Amino acid sequence: MELLIRNGLVFDPINGVKGEKMDIAVSNSKIVEKINERKARKIDASGMIVMPGGVDIHTHIAGSEVNTGRLLRPEDHFKDFERKTSATRSGVGYSIPSTFTTGYRYARMGYTTIMNPSMPPLEAKHTHEELSDTPMVDKASYPLLGDWWFVLEYLKDGKIEECARYIAWMMTSTKGYAIKIVNPGGLEAWGFGHNVSSLDDHVPCFCITPREIIRGLCKVNKLLNLPHTIHVHTNNLGKPGNYQTALETMRCVEDLADGNKPAIHITHCQFSGFKGDDWASLQSGAEEIANYVNAHSHATLDMGQVIFTDTTTMTADGPFQYTLYELSGNKWVNHDVETETSAGIVPFKYRRKSYVHAVQWSIGLELALLIKDPWKIFMTTDHPNGGPFTSYPRIIAWLMSKKAREATLKRINPKARSRSLLPSIDRELSFYEIAIVTRAGQAKALGLANKGHLGVGADADIAIYNVNPEKTDPSRKYKRVRRAFKRAAYTVKGGKIVVKDGEILRHVEGATIWLDVQSSQPVRITDDMKRRFREYWTVEYENYPVADDYLKISNPIPIKASV
Hints:
The chain is α/β, with parallel strands linked by helices. It is 32% helix and 21% strand.
């Protein structure tokens, strides 16, 4: 079909468009220069904002970790549910919604591309089953590779090129998109009941340090020329004083930066932005992290913003989840994934009157407002760890309005309020900057050339919001802005109108994006490798890869490796 969006106020940062009144033409799922207006379907976007479809760089929405969370928390099912309609299926879940519900809720907010950041390679088939079952959005997943025994063995021996070839094989075999590293070395240590506490601790049995893992995989990422940088969950996450670890993690790859191209992405940085010696002395380290990021061009971050709500924490960082279990006393699931990674799940409630939780809430916003360049910091909640993704409109209001932040500050723990940097920060993001931190910047960091913009040739993924920036001051009318971003006036996915006034009009599948990483020297599956599979895993090599015809997966992005 052909579609013409007329007279919208367009915010398209990748193409430098800042609220200009423009028409957007669509044909055959792509944005085009012009179409036959007489035959095209039309949307009158007069007085409305038009942006690229939203992009989420980090959201836990699929796989065994998420599914186990659903099983652990039947009470979460009753807090929110989707009724069946002529266009949609029913579903349940507040912090860990079912697959169909996840797709519908993202689409209602104008989101069209989401990235699942935690996929144990052994459980890739399960992850892809759930991704395929999540409608309305395109999606991808990041294999957990930082504690994979093959990686540790090759990096210990300094065999970067051999490691790169096996990473290429693993990425293609699991239909993954980016190298994910969680608490490097700590997950392997957790198999022995231990953890690591600095970048220079030794991982049991492998004589390698977290610093060597991060640097080695950063070199591998460059050799393979992958579209996204290494995606790093830092050591010491969730511990007082860990802002120093976050800074050291970024410093350790400074010399591996390639010009202005990022070398590392620090994910959910709020959880890595703690100053202090213990929980009683906890303070924000956001200013120190922001100063570093402002002075360097090799790192990007996402917020991991905390929302005051009941949610479910889940991460491959097993030792951290055990700590959270001890702190909260809540029920807990722990899981070791053979030779690859670990996982933990703990229900959690963030409370306004808790000093620690209020400090965490403040840190995420401080990071986003103190980092001067919005292309370096992206909006996330680390769904569902900081809170459900459906809270994004609330975060947008906080970022755009000091008045909105002050309204929440009045209700939080007094001690946390007195130590927060937010009262001293006057900055309020513009609609243009919101378009960067919620779509353009994330698409650029992911290397998704056809996403996050409205230029000719881009995927026709478009969000239209019923708010007029010429008549609405977001600083004062932040509730009006929040309502607009909660329920898009229109969401267009692949050129099809799928949402109108926040209601799902039609069900579309969405594609699973993956990398077909091709090395100039392909991995030879030797008898020795098959032997190690037999010794290391509970499956044979032949049963391990995700076959091309196994699931409804599409949009491979071929990458030519240089090794």
